[in-house]
Design goal:
2 copies of one chain form a homodimer. Chain A is an alpha+beta fold and about 260 residues long. In chain A, strands 1, 2, 3, 4, 5, 10 and 11 form a 7-stranded antiparallel sheet that branches. In chain A, a hairpin with a 2-residue loop joins strand 3 (about 80-85) and strand 4. Chain A has 2 domains: about 30-110 and about 230-250, PSTPO5379-like, CATH 3.40.1640.10; about 115-220, PSTPO5379-like fold, CATH 3.30.2040. Chain A contains 6 helices and 11 strands. Chains A, B: One of its GO terms (molecular function) is D-glutamate cyclase activity.
């Protein structure tokens, strides 16, 4: 039985469930989270607008607001895991952010490729990370981003190994999901975008596959802001833990 | 002979020319200007994103930047007239803003209905304000906007009196120009949107027409932020003077 978003979120709030959201609540939009003090919010909003492929905005919340429009959720407790960055360094992974919440925090919700995974499955494209119960592998790349104020850096991508004969289909399915990163940013040779070893992801977990039969396909990833934060060094920045998203109450319009 | 945008802008810079830009440099995009200290920039950017009809973003500049991407211009001198608002009150109209410029100023360029006026003329729709050499009449309305932080209020509209039989054509022409306010927000009875007297505009100048033969058509207007500023009361906010826009170097893609 498929659980409702509100039930799943409650299991995160009670910390009964703390794993990846990949494959949960099929067809509902999932979102990356970035929370920053308002002093950084203009630069970050501009960064998202200038880099819509890795940072498609689902919602921008007002300072201090904890309940978004896209989900009857408390964004401080209703994701399975969060990461805290201080002065550009990753310092802690936590199960809620109630204790560190500040009234001047502005939260950005950014589209996520998990949203189109069910569409891939429905059209016969296997998802190895789901079968192998792994967090989807994600990689830093050499693909440059447009700078905005203090935010700059390279794109982070998620990788799915797609059977060679299904690559074109995966491309055209994901292309419909513009608010969830849309079509891939790269297909094939990982070295062309600066990835040296597919078995050593920068985020998430490595997935087993037979390189002769599949092609690595790379989508822009909402973990990109975490990479940008390492360089921008805001005093504090909170994100979801890679692979551990906000599940919204909105069924994606592309289903 | 039609002057080039750079030549016209130079005539504004030297203050040889200080009038409305309506009808100038046909087919080039014109833009409204809003300049604010960076402390207000996040709220204002969010206000624009939530109200794309009156505030379609052409460009958002970095703090302290004076040369936009859309024009080889200095935005401190190359518009014919500016207005300065302090603590929510209109205090001065000036020909340049060099003396009041601050390093933390962020400038927003917002689409303008002047951009599609040539398309209206090309398809046989007369523009009474151009014939009568008036600044297009603009009105405060009761059409509410989405609030963002300190910015809120009602929409400002520009009015063009269109011969009855040409209203549908004016609608479909302007609809193409999405980044310049697009289709009208109201057609006909001004009282329905809170306008009591078409001969008493809140901005610009009244235009003569025969009410039996024409229909008033109202487009969302980039003066809307000036109305919002009256309520938000930022310490300082600079805008173009209504009708006195930035002429960019970009030919509108809809021509």
């Amino acid at each position: 039985m498929v659980m409702k978003p509100s039930d799943i979120r409650m299991s995160f709030r009670t910390e009964e469930n703390t794993g990846t959201t990949s494959g949960m609540c099929e067809k509902y939009t999932q979102a990356n989270l970035v929370t920053l003090p308002k002093a950084y919010a203009f630069d970050f909003l501009l960064f998202c607008m200038r880099n819509p492929k890795p940072c498609p905005l689902v919602e921008v919340m007002e300072a201090g607001q904890t309940v978004p429009k896209v989900a009857e959720a408390d964004i401080r407790t209703d994701l399975p895991r969060y990461r805290i960055y201080r002065d550009g360094k990753f310092t802690e992974e936590v199960l809620n952010i109630s204790d560190v919440w500040q009234e001047d925090f502005v939260t950005f919700l950014i589209g996520c490729s998990f949203t189109f995974e069910q569409a891939l499955l429905d059209e016969g494209i296997p998802l190895f990370h789901q079968v192998q119960k792994k967090v989807v592998p994600m990689f830093d790349t050499t693909i440059p981003l447009e700078t905005a104020g203090i935010f700059k850096g390279n794109m982070v991508v998620s990788m799915r190994a797609v059977p060679n004969e299904l690559v074109q289909r995966a491309l055209s399915i994901s292309d419909r999901f513009e608010q969830s990163h849309g079509s891939p940013v790269h297909i094939g040779d990982p070295e062309e975008i600066g990835i040296t070893d597919l078995q050593k992801p920068d985020y998430g977990e490595a997935v087993d596959f037979d390189p002769a039969k599949v092609t690595p396909v790379f989508w822009a990833c909402g973990v990109t802001p975490q990479n940008a934060a390492l360089q921008a060094k805001p005093t504090i920045m909170i994100t979801h833990a890679p692979g551990h998203m906000l599940i919204t109450d909105q069924m994606d319009a592309n289903y």
